Amino acid sequence: MAADHPSGAPPPVPHPSAPQHETHLAAHGIELADVQSVREQKTDPFFAKRVQVYPKRVWGTFRRLKWTALFTLLGVYYLLPWLRWDRGPNAPDQAVLVDMDHERAYFFFIEIWAQEVYYLTGVLILAAIGLFLVTSLFGRVWCGYACPQTVWTDLFMWVERRIEGDRSARIRRDKQPWSVAKFARKAAKHAVWLLIALLTGGAWILYFEDAPTLAAKFFTGDASSSLYFFVGLFTVTTYSFAGLMREQVCTFMCPWPRFQSAMLDEDTMVVTYEDWRGEPRGVHRKGSDAVVGDCVDCKQCVAVCPTGIDIRDGIQLECIGCGLCIDACNDVMAKVGSPPNLISYDTERRVAERSRGGELRYRLFRPRTLLYVLLMAVVGGIMLFSLLTRSSQGINVLHDRTKFVRLSDGSIRNGYEIKILNKARRARKFVLTVHGIDKARLSSAGAAGGPAARLVLTAKPDDVTAYQVFVQAPAAALKAADTKVTFRLVEQATGEATERQINFTGPAPAPQDGRK
Amino acid sequence: MTTEREKDSVTGTETTGHEWDGIRELDTPPPSWLMWIFYLSIVFAAVYVVLYPAIPLGGSYTKGVLGYSSREALDVSMAQLRKAQGQYLVQINAKSPAEILKDPQLRTFAVRGGLVAFGDNCAACHNLGGTGRHAYPSLADDVWLWGGKPADIYATLKYGIRSGHDKTRTSAMLPFGTGQKMTEPQTADVAEYVLSLTKRSKDAAAVTRGAALYGRQCASCHGKSGGGDQKQGAPALNDQIWLYGGTKAEIIAQIVRPKMGVMPAWVDRLKDETLKMLSVYVHALGGGK
């Protein structure tokens, strides 16, 4: 694991006085940020007031990556419900839809019934292992780039910067007493935040009903009250999580940072300060023979950090691995003419080797990553297999609460509720037979015709059709009070068969006491 | 406990003044967000007390300015339910049980409604699912005393059997063993003949003697071959269903001093729509004709 702080590193050079230091930096065209890390500012771990973080604007590779992720993910989120997918008549044409009223979920060509929700379990398992895999390879890229908390926070910070200006302007304004201008800016910011939050909630509900219809219904007030509730809920959570709480969510609410250390090892790519190169911090002055490292201690890395930490303290749970400090530092390194990547996105092992002058290859294949890939392949394989081989029909059988009925000819009758699951989008005919008892015969309540060896039942398209079915058997055919019988449902056209076993109840076999 | 506040030298936090084996307890204030939740809860409670029923006052209670009452809410939702059922109930009132059975949607509705009414009114005697018990006929088998057509079931439900209602259907079996009709050995002979109808007799001579008696005394109601007569509620004697038991002793007992069941008239106790739904439900139990 990356150490909190290099214990073997030489102590930092005594700090020159602040103005002096600033002048030295300015000579290189670098601004000294007036900033302290959250750790430095914290006084009491239990009830210190929240330390406001004012992230500074930054340019560079990682910032571009973050913008790309933001546009892609928000684009998917807002546009996906509008995507159409033709499923034929009497079926929704929305590509991704969770239809709560009809207990159906649609994902392009896949249709899931409520009782098949275990596919969701599979997806969640895949997502969890996928997260483990990505984290053990590339560190907390989920936190830095893909987590909704990060994406929306990034969007909200952009709005803040457009309205309130960059870091120093915001700090200055917050220190000023309230004025009309300050109030106007703050109000504008919060208004835009609320609008975005409202759109977030608005887009969420589109996944649960036909998007174009719902969008129209929403504004005429005809949508169901639960939909308005969820829009409200997501508006409030988006506004408070992305606007107000931000890094507090990651640091105090999210469990993921707490066990990330179990995912990281010395071959995981993490955002690392190369202290062997940077220490001791300071600016080399002409005529001075003090040895200084590449770190000029400009604190730009702290200023741009969205969680307000100092990466030079080493890996810490607040670090979301976004790499914005790398962009900031590389900018400075270019200005002072030092090689880039003093803060690097690299593995602990490689950094240690580099400090000794060597170079190691990046190890993509490790027992841990191979195990994750294997697990994903197994889970994904099982899901794919069951998805491809799942039947378009099913049968559920429920025995009546009454045990049995004796008929006038002495035969025994049991009643069952037969539910036929027809996942095809057309009505289908099924042949129902019962096996396990000789001369058992079937009849259906409400259907014409006496008991027969087989019943032909019609199933409604894309629905469950219930039938009350009676099975009667001669008492002589029953060997015991309980007999196992098997209902066999055969689709008339394709011959595909589905079976279900259940009890047939009769009287206990007559005692041979001559009571005839 | 001391009232003097003492500060812990290491953390600078006040202590509670408690000391156990030299260990003092810090009086760490709770985080402010927790306190805010606490204060908000108090505000919530105050608002709730104003808006909703809250404080009991002997026989009454504070009603709250919103005037909410869970009893009234129940009435409202029951009224909504009745309104939703209205279209079906109108049709059920307008149609005969046989017509209801022909309409799949109405049939389903009536079977569900009948199930509930059956559990409330009928299951005590006829058992859940209408499977009957000793002396109470099964309604799920294929045997009917007074007819198993929808209209027959409806009539039985409405006016009952031997119920005392003006329109009730009634019949009585004579107590053959208590007067001059049959001697004791003769009742045994008739019983032996009845057993023979279901091929359970082993005494051919008694059967012959009983057959003559049966022809004179019983056949007018129970039929020559024991098929029964639903017009007068005479049960069939040639099947496997025995309301009061099918052993020889039980048959003799029924000849000597017959038991005859009573079905109450429900016409004054249940709504017509309920009676119709019950008729449909009983018909659909599996034995309807």
How would you describe what is shown here?
The complex is a heterodimer of chains A (516) and B (289). Chain A is α+β, with helices and mostly antiparallel strands and 516 residues long. Among the domains of chain A are: 18-51 and 260-355, no CATH class; 393-505, Immunoglobulin-like (Sandwich), CATH 2.60.40.10. Chain A is 40% helix and 17% strand. The radius of gyration of chain A is 34 Å and the shape is elongated. The N and C termini of chain A lie far apart (86 Å). The model of chain A is unreliable at 1-12 (pLDDT under 50). Chain B has 289 residues and is mainly alpha-helical. Chain B has 3 domains: 6-61, no CATH class; 72-168 and 263-283, Cytochrome c-like domain (Cytochrome Bc1 Complex, Chain D, domain 2, Orthogonal Bundle); 184-256, Cytochrome Bc1 Complex, Chain D, domain 2 (Orthogonal Bundle), CATH 1.10.760. Chain B has helices at residues 32-51, 70-94, 97-102, 104-121, 123-126, 150-159, 184-197, 204-217, 219-222, 248-256, 272-283; strands at residues 6-7, 14-20, 23-26, 56-57, 60-61. Chain B has a 3-stranded antiparallel sheet, with no helix packed on it. In chain B, a hairpin with a 2-residue loop joins β2 (14-20) and β3 (23-26). In chain B, α6 packs across α11 and α7 packs across α10 (248-256). The longest helix of chain B has 25 residues, at 70-94. Chain B starts with 5 loop residues before the first strand and ends in a 6-residue tail after the last helix. The mean pLDDT of chain B is 91. At the A-B interface, β7 of A face loops of B.
